[in-house]
Design a protein that fits this description.
alpha/beta; Rossmann fold; 2 domains; 6-stranded mixed sheet; 4-stranded antiparallel sheet; 10 helices; globular; disordered C terminus; transport; ATP binding; ATP hydrolysis activity; P-loop_NTPase
Length: about 250
């Protein structure tokens, strides 16, 4: 199976502080790979290195077989078109309507007509369970779950091969969180996308993931299938699971 992301010996220091240390993992085509760990463990820092926002102090990050650190700005910009990013707080533009948020890339980068972009936005919104009733609404008129789905619709607007979800269930009630989990799985099945999920929500992580990476203080503790992690004998992993689960799960 093809490797979509390959991370080798990744280390990152910012302002003299070590954020990541010797991180190694790969993400395979069609896989849902979830990164879990406590606050400040380096989860989001890894995704910033993957999309080229931060340059590693050491190591290499390859996406679609290309070394991120060797790409020109133009090449990196082209690569990012194949990467959808769902931000933790949805990060919608308050002054833009829903269809403009979803079609923002095309409004800014292409000569497509507003009618064409509006239609494209509607197609993506339908993939996330919304319809034309929301097209003309502003973010302030949406519920938290709807904002999250609009953020996902924007992320898939360019038909990316890789989607990165940063805390996709953060701030949502349990029922809405499970709806987002179902949506992540559905998009993988419908679009054939590869997914990297950063999450503090262990119920979500163990519901959707093919493999999970557990981080502690910027270092990898364990990588494995959900069952591998659940049956882990590593003390930190056992304690992390005990403290992290808020609902009963058969450990």
């Amino acid at each position: 199976m093809n490797k979509v992301v390959q991370v080798e010996n990744l280390s990152l220091s910012l302002n003299g502080r070590e954020i990541l240390k010797d991180i190694n993992f790969e993400v395979l085509q069609g896989e849902i790979f979830t990164i879990v760990g406590g606050s400040g463990s380096g989860k989001t820092s890894i995704t910033k290195c993957i999309v080229g926002l931060w340059k590693p102090t050491e190591g290499k990050v390859e996406v679609f077989g290309k070394d991120i650190n060797t790409l020109s700005i133009k090449e990196l910009d082209s690569l990012r078109k194949d990467i959808g990013y769902v931000f933790q707080g949805s990060a919608l533009f308050d002054s833009l309507k829903v269809w403009e948020n979803v079609g923002f890339y095309y409004l800014e980068r292409t000569n497509m007509s507003q009618k064409e972009i509006r239609q494209l936005a509607l197609e993506k919104l339908r993939l996330v369970g919304l319809d034309e009733d929301v097209l003309e609404l502003y973010p302030s008129e949406l519920s938290g779950g709807m904002k999250k789905r609009v953020g996902i619709a924007r992320a898939i607007a360019t038909d990316p091969k890789l989607i990165i979800y940063d805390e996709p269930t953060s701030g949502l009630d349990p029922i809405t969180s499970r709806m987002i989990d179902d949506l992540i799985l559905s998009l993988r099945d419908k679009m054939g996308t590869t997914s990297i999920v950063v999450s503090h929500d262990l119920i979500s992580a163990f519901s959707i993931s093919d493999r999970i990476m557990v981080l502690k203080d910027g270092r990898t503790v364990q990588i494995g299938s959900p069952q591998d992690i659940l049956s882990s004998e590593i003390p930190f992993v056992k304690e992390f699971l005990r403290s992290g689960f808020t609902h009963r799960i058969n450990l």
